[in-house]
Amino acid sequence: MPKPLVTILGKAVKKAAGLRGGGSALPGLVVEHIDPNFISHTLADLPLGVVVISGTNGKTTTTKMVVELLESQGLKVFTNRTGSNFTRGIAAALLGEINIKGELHADIAVLELDEAHAVHFVKKIIPRFSLLLNVMRDQLDRFGEIDHTTNLLRCVADATTETVVLNREDKRIASIAKSLDDDKVRFYGLDESLLPLFPSDDDLHGNGNHKKATQTADVILSKFSDSSATFIIDGKSVSTKLKLTGVYNVFNAAAALSLVRAIIGEKIDQSKLIVALSKVTPAFGRGEMIKVNGQPLELVLVKNPSGFRLGLKSFDSAGYATMIAINDNYADGRDMSWLWDVDFSSLVDDGVEQVSGVRAYDMALRLQYDEVKIRDVDTDLKSALNKFVARYSKQPMRIYCTYTAMLAIRKNLSKIAKVEVIK
Amino acid sequence: MNSKTITILNLYSNDMNIYGDSGNVLCIKRRLQWSGYEPRVIEYNQGDKFPMDVDIIIGGGGQDSGQEKIKADLIKIGPKLKKLADDGVSILMICGLYQLFGKFFKTSDGEIIEGIGLLDIETFGKSERLIGNIVTHSEQFGDIIGYENHSGQTYLGHKVQVFGRVRIGAGNNTSDISEGARYKNVIGSYMHGSLLPKNPAVADYLIEQAVKRKYNDYIVKGLDNTYAEMARKIAAKRPR
């Protein structure tokens, strides 16, 4: 089928799907079915090529950072902004951006890809740059095992033509460098003093020994507080204020800086880069703040044990009313075992006010065994949210939630507060 | 606290601990505490001195790399584990260690990984992965509810009994309806979830056997299963 026709058809489906409030991936699916090479054709002509970002935790916020940092350098960037990180989602995002001839007006594409899909993607579309963040036990029911996941990411690194940016502090990610040419690899890392704050998967499972990494890192996160951070970039110390919260987001800023430095090269305008970084806000549901009746309500997306643990570590529960909402739909992962890999003892002092979601009672059971007090359990998200917001309207609130629970919570919150609802 | 100590051994806690199997150790520990006993959790990892003075042994699943690391050591301590099992010690082995407590694991490439033969079971690696929510039933424990994720398929010999009969899910293999295996006070199973918190009847059985063996009497108190019962009810209705 000639390309303009595929494009028109795809755009029509996108419009129709939008009208009936459908998911973001459907139009992409239709186009992919008709022209399987749609994405590669469209992306092949980009002057600065394709950048792939993958790993278990932090893809969405890191991708958002990289896009905004590249824009600070004057580039026009295409990205899969809705966090629909499957090939179909990318095809759908492309449809929104291309003209009727199928041309994409951008200098570079920055794409967030799920590990398993990244492998298939790089077979068709060869990335010029890639950034690999971490390997943690995610939804093991999907990928099987974490060593297997590492191999998936190794394929992405092998396929990359110019530079692979790797997390020096994640030993599985760092080991990917061994099979790559030295001049193809860049590391980002942490100052030794911060290592204990970022437990790796092995640390979380009793195998941890904080051995100091020996590789030289292009960007190092050396210090951070609630609202500022210091990076060592190419040996020089740079401090900046930040709007990002959560230790893992700040570490991923080091990843984004290193990747953008690799892409732009010597022409980089560092002062503009740092100004842009100071303005980046977290991606939706990744520690974002919503005002409800004048009180801040924080949404923290949790989708695996390491993410949940990092979330509990990043946000002090004192003074906050806490709610936890756990669903087990396909996008959340069906297996509830992962809750038992999270240590909830930091919630013992203040308790949990509301537990909800399809698997609310699995969560309540988990909290019971860490001897965390629970005020109310209600599997109905809407009524649980209403009770929570009504009861704790005079203090800051925080909700830890899985992906589909977050979507439902945002939708219901939008009826009582100003919330951007992502379709 | 009646200061009666029960020692729980967490077998290969560093390498055989995926899918939240550490929840089983926590479950036993808390239920003992809540009943007024004094649980003591010790860990055994390859190369450590093996402690014979234990009352309950818990082991979990691992990745291929984890199994690779522990398999030689397990063969070494195999006779000690067999002696403890024959003495009536309560033992729970999930997934990877369940397989290695059997006679062998034959991989899909035909390689044979020797087990310790404590359980009369044989396991064969298959390409198909059996993944999803699982509900089985046992006369003693009622419905047993959990989550399975394995590619090894296990067949039981005559010297073991089944742990549960599959109602929803796959269980030991794709050809019969058995799930897990039992021998004396040893339970082997593919069920994560974690298994024990969601199935308090199984947890209390392992605890009761251990406490009776050591102190003759067994007192349960202060155990509230409300959340577990609700969690079980909902889990049993979720899609596979």
Would you give an account of this structure?
The complex is a heterodimer of chains A (423) and B (240). With 423 residues, chain A is an alpha/beta fold. Chain A folds into two domains: 3-279, 3-Layer(aba) Sandwich (UDP-N-acetylmuramoyl-L-alanine:D-glutamate ligase), CATH 3.40.1190; 286-413, Mur ligase, C-terminal domain (Protein-Tyrosine Phosphatase, Chain A, Alpha-Beta Complex), CATH 3.90.190.20. Chain A has 16 helices and 15 strands. In chain A, the strands form two sheets. Chain A has a nine-stranded mixed β-sheet with strand order 2-3-1-4-5-6-7-8-9, sandwiched between helices. Chain A has a six-stranded mixed β-sheet with strand order 10-11-15-12-13-14, sandwiched between helices. In chain A, α1 (3-19) packs antiparallel against α2 (26-34). Chain B is α/β, with parallel strands linked by helices and 240 residues long. Chain B has a single domain, classed as Class I glutamine amidotransferase (GATase) domain (Rossmann fold, 3-Layer(aba) Sandwich). In chain B, α1 (22-34) packs across α5 (200-215). The model of chain B has no long low-confidence stretch (mean pLDDT 94). The A-B interface holds A 137, 140-141, 144-147, 205-207, 305, 328, 334-341, 358-359, 361-362, 364-366, 368-371, 377, 379 and B 13-15, 17-23, 26-27, 30, 43, 63-65, 129, 131-133, 147, 149, 192-194, 197-198, 224, 227-228, 230-231, 233-235, 238-240.
How is this fold's topology laid out?
The complex is a heterodimer of chains A (423) and B (240).
Chain A: H1 3-19, H2 26-34, H3 38-44, E1 50-54, H4 59-72, E2 77-79, H5 87-97, E3 108-112, H6 115-124, E4 129-132, H7 140-143, H8 146-159, E5 163-167, H9 171-175, E6 185-190, H10 201-204, E7 219-224, E8 228-233, E9 236-241, H11 247-264, H12 270-279, E10 286-292, E11 295-301, H13 305-314, E12 321-325, E13 352-356, H14 360-369, E14 374-378, H15 381-391, E15 397-401, H16 403-413
Parallel strand pairs in A: 1-3, 1-4, 2-3, 4-5, 5-6, 6-7, 11-15, 12-13, 12-15, 13-14
Antiparallel strand pairs in A: 7-8, 8-9, 10-11
Chain B: E1 5-11, H1 22-34, E2 38-44, E3 56-59, H2 64-86, E4 90-94, H3 95-100, E5 104-106, E6 112-114, E7 121-138, E8 142-156, E9 164-168, E10 178-179, E11 181-183, E12 186-189, H4 195-198, H5 200-215, H6 226-235
Parallel strand pairs in B: 1-2, 1-3, 3-4, 4-12, 5-7
Antiparallel strand pairs in B: 5-6, 7-8, 7-9, 9-10, 11-12
